Amino acid sequence: MWKKLSNLPRHEHNNAFLLKHFGSADTIRAWFDSTSNFDTQFHCEHPEGGHCSRRICEMPDGKVVAVCNDDEAACPDLPLTRSDIRLHTLNLSKIAGIIAELTADASIYADVQSAGEAVNCIRIGHYMPRGTIRFPVFFGLSIYDGELDAAINYLLSLDKPAIMLLPSIEDVPQAKLNAVKSKDSVLIGLQDLQADSSLIDIAKVDEAFKLFFEAQKDPDPKINCKIFPAPPGATWGKFIFEWQEEQLLNDARTKKEHKREILMVTCGNKTIRYEPDDLNMWHTRSKKPTLQWNLLGIFIQNGGEICCGGNGNADNVKSQKAELIRKMKKAFSQSEDPIPWDDDEKCYKCKFVCRNEQQNQ
To answer: Which end of the chain is more exposed for a tag (fewer CB within 10 A), N or C?
Structure first.
């Protein structure tokens, strides 16, 4: 089906053409819009091979027939209805909407809209593999010569990686594939994602999108931290941060104890234990947590906020907060600031839920 769509010879098609190539009238209604134009010429195929053209004639009794122009062929007249000769045109938004619906289970958050000035390129939504990490997903279709280049060039103009779904990528030049790959984007043929019983096999979509995500470059390679398996679409408000203390023995002989602070993070049905080193908040030389870890602990123990008022604490918090949120964004796959400033209350307030052992007692 997708291969047929990529090879349509014209922008407008009569009903007989669509039935021949797509079969179902439901497909026609879903993918094409009826225009106010009528076809003036039909083609017919001979049983012996070859074809000839037909002209449209309206008979005195009001019936419409397609009459063969080849007298020697003697093809029988073809009765037509007004619906048969009415032309249909592809509706890219409809097709994009169908694709968005069929791929929703692969963490596609549908948001169908046109993409810039590329008239044959529609954004179907965003792929969100984890948390609020998102990549735009487009559907492109080459209706006229040169339009495929326009769609791919639009993809190359973006300042971040993206996915473009095409009916087929068989005819895409290798140079274009290489250019897209160099931008960390990808072209995927819908022809390669279909199954015998469905237009799109969601398992194949999952695998193709997963490979795209795994190929992405680390946006902040200097930060080495434990990544929380946040479900797609999970924002900061879905996270629970709980500050706890563990009693540890320094020496089994003397039985001396010391306390170690840990962080338990829950989102959905996942709970992960974090120590300072897991969040890249540990001094290897001093063997102590960094100031960012201490600041995070203060926020959680204060119920998620630090109010600075008019004193100089705001600057001290701000200087450590920038590095803190940088590490938190990466560890929890988020794009927004988890601790924004509330100008009305002169406070830094956490978007995530904060708990400590005292609150639980």
So the answer is: C
